[in-house]
Amino acid sequence: MLSLRLTSFTHLLSPPSSAAIARRSRAILRRRHHLRQRPLAASFSAQSATAETQDRVNNSKNRVPEQVITPRSQDFNAWYLDVIANAELADYGPVRGTMVIRPYGYAIWEAIQEYLNVKFKETGHSNMYFPQFIPYSFIEKEASHVEGFSPELALVTIGGGKELEEKLVVRPTSETIVNHMFTQWIHSYRDLPLLINQWANVTRWEMRTKPFVRTLEFLWQEGHTAHATPEEAEDEAIQMIDIYTRFAYEQAAIPVITGRKSKVETFAGACKTYTIEAMMGDKKALQAGTSHNLGQNFSRAFGTQFTDENGVREHIWQTSWAISTRFVGGIIMTHGDDAGLMLPPKIAPIQVVIVPIWKKDDEKAAVLNAALIVKDVLQKSGIRVKLDDSDQRTPGWKFNFWEMKGVPLRIEIGPRDVASGSVVISRRDIPGKQGKVFGISMEPSNLEAYVKDKLDEIQSSLLERAIAFRDSNIVDVSTYSDLKAAISEGKWARGPWSASDEDELKVKEETGATIRCFPFEQPQGIKTCLMTGNPAEEVAIFAKSY
Amino acid sequence: MLSLRLTSFTHLLSPPSSAAIARRSRAILRRRHHLRQRPLAASFSAQSATAETQDRVNNSKNRVPEQVITPRSQDFNAWYLDVIANAELADYGPVRGTMVIRPYGYAIWEAIQEYLNVKFKETGHSNMYFPQFIPYSFIEKEASHVEGFSPELALVTIGGGKELEEKLVVRPTSETIVNHMFTQWIHSYRDLPLLINQWANVTRWEMRTKPFVRTLEFLWQEGHTAHATPEEAEDEAIQMIDIYTRFAYEQAAIPVITGRKSKVETFAGACKTYTIEAMMGDKKALQAGTSHNLGQNFSRAFGTQFTDENGVREHIWQTSWAISTRFVGGIIMTHGDDAGLMLPPKIAPIQVVIVPIWKKDDEKAAVLNAALIVKDVLQKSGIRVKLDDSDQRTPGWKFNFWEMKGVPLRIEIGPRDVASGSVVISRRDIPGKQGKVFGISMEPSNLEAYVKDKLDEIQSSLLERAIAFRDSNIVDVSTYSDLKAAISEGKWARGPWSASDEDELKVKEETGATIRCFPFEQPQGIKTCLMTGNPAEEVAIFAKSY
Asked: pTM score, two decimals?
């Protein structure tokens, strides 16, 4: 019944000790028969800690839950939702399509923010904040922008008890209000480049939503820049997609494919859209970040001009670029497995969890003392470490719980380890005995070096694994029937493309796949369009996507 | 005409090189006759940099603007708006009452965030994120909450092109949605305390707005906690107002008075509201942060219950607490003077500005080289330093500009300083020659120590000055006529109070002053209510407020 109340001691980063969590009930109800955990009523009974501890350890084998989530291979979507619920990443909000980002999920977003915020500042951008309410008339000024966004708008029509004269759009993105302000700030070429960013919430009235991947409201950063020349704007757009690419590879261990969107898939209002496309565990593509060269589309619509060095009035050249909480979904779906989430060490809120193990009461103090020392050593060397010294669960339960949370390394310390001055270390990315090493000396410099080394190894290993998965699931195609075959197998198809927008839409209709991008990395040699047989300058990648 | 286009080289923290800024025009137009700067057309002419530089330096005395803002003593409100415009802190958004927070203003907010975010985590709170759209029915659940907030709501009535079945409130605060989620997360006493915080935007449809102080949308953090006992909730509410108090004193150099709100002034839905009240330069009070003991008001309205250690179902005890971008307004109005903004070093985005000075072209390289070395030395020791090496303005202009921006210390380096291996250092808080010290050795360890010492001195000095100002403007009163006299002089009145809510409202009606708080620090001895002559347990502070 209440058997899945995992949560009473999920204090991490000193979080809500939050409980059982009703929102898990859907998934739980579906899977109750999987579970062998004894009812919560028993484990929450008022036994003495000691008796309870012994009892728990003695029975630990019986009490470790089996799979508490849907296997990934069985139902990828159900698995994804189960991981989000069980790893306590997010919850549904009361309004359809909205999401509450819980502390553990938010901590992943904070890791993304911390890295990118530094990179943005290093490349000369300043943070600022624009209001989220945009007069409706602004949205209408750029023709393709209004066409792209008007079906998705949330509109404020009543303020302070009165019907408003002009409806207000809750920002779906800020190009229009940014241009309104740029027009006031930019006068001369000396005011350029103007490089800004904001961390904000945005609202898009999506019909089909999915936690992190597509929600009615989401968090993101949106960069907006203004330049004196088209070349500078292009360089900026490329610079920012490069920063996203590096972030994806080096921090998130996601081997995205970076490229240019087709005209059909270009952002509403942009000249060119660059994108990073990530292959999820079900081989669907996720657009994980975009950088737009907006040309003069918005500056012409808003009259954003500057006086150049020769005294001539010109429209500014612009870019915008964004990464959102969607990226958290990408991390889950790239690395997760049947045991739950698997986090790359660089963005893991907790990199190492220490689980102390004792059977007898007289062992407890020594074990906990050693665990505290180990925690201290690692913490001082800058490792994000959590000691799960809770009395209320068995070590086995804790193993599963922190595996579900995707913590890269687990350190186990029992009485024998204390006696020998060593610990046992298990890798999240290598299940079972294979990932377990015994007898690692507790000696601080040794332990610190070992752990750092292992974290680096895991980081690389996750990336390599994801690259191998990606590459084994991209098929080079030279005809449309090849393409259809590849897509029907659920793979990505890469082939030369110079056909029309209509042909592109036909592919979408017939296969469900879209052009994800024309990748920056292009094969050498003569290319012939897979659809028309005409010469083609580039290969495109087609895939089904989120 | 365009004479006040200060902005071409206001790159700070690598910001928008943003310009002249039309929004300054109002203030500028009003004050054009004050200015002696030569027209921008000339300073922006296409002379060679060298010729221009010499010309500029030669004419520097004539070209330094005088007061470019309304004197504070003359019109406090106009001064405030001028500082915000000229120090490039914020701009008006296109929707009435909204504000664009510009990079320099946002950097102050980031300094506030950085400090508080660490303190919140140290005290066990986790960040998370709740959706901003709240079903209208939620707001109606807590009686006094709906009464307090319903006049200020912005309502979304259309989403995705369709009229919504239930109107959505754009969050004015999140107690209701937080309780909706708490009800799902909290089951047992083991789930408590639950300690969370979010950094978010909020919307209140205010009629009379003022940048930073009261805007239709603003940024804040809102903490929300749930506890098993009323004592724990009370302790939490006190702990958080203490953190705010320490932040105000130690970081912002604002000597707030901390206390409890009267029943009339208590937050809509709270049992008790604690507040930090700051005295602005015009002696009006600013409520700069609040912490609420919500008791069981929301948990009863939302049915948020837990099972206690004895198996009994109880409603949780809650708190909420917030500081917002309003605090930036408080910093401006506490420390600013006729020369503009004055920032306490601990929250100044730029703590030290270096202004190199040269007359002849052959001096330039040596001066700039020395300036770069000084910058490097300070930066490496963790000081936030900006080198204003722009070719386009005179040193005098730069002095004024960075004084306007409130930078605590200025380092001047000219050819003679280079020759003697020393620099000149000026304090923002002590104008003219008195704040200027010549011949400080450039030797790194000496310079670093001197600068750090001076920054500490300025930090203390700003606080001491504000304390003296505050204390000289609080009048102890023992009768209502004393109170009226004090308020009519623009001062704060402190006197014993045990009268009714009606009496409190009468004071407001007759004097414009409200009870700001019953301060935590209370005088000893027997007290008699200034209004009724009845015994009183506490003194209250009355003041006009923002």
From this structure: 0.89
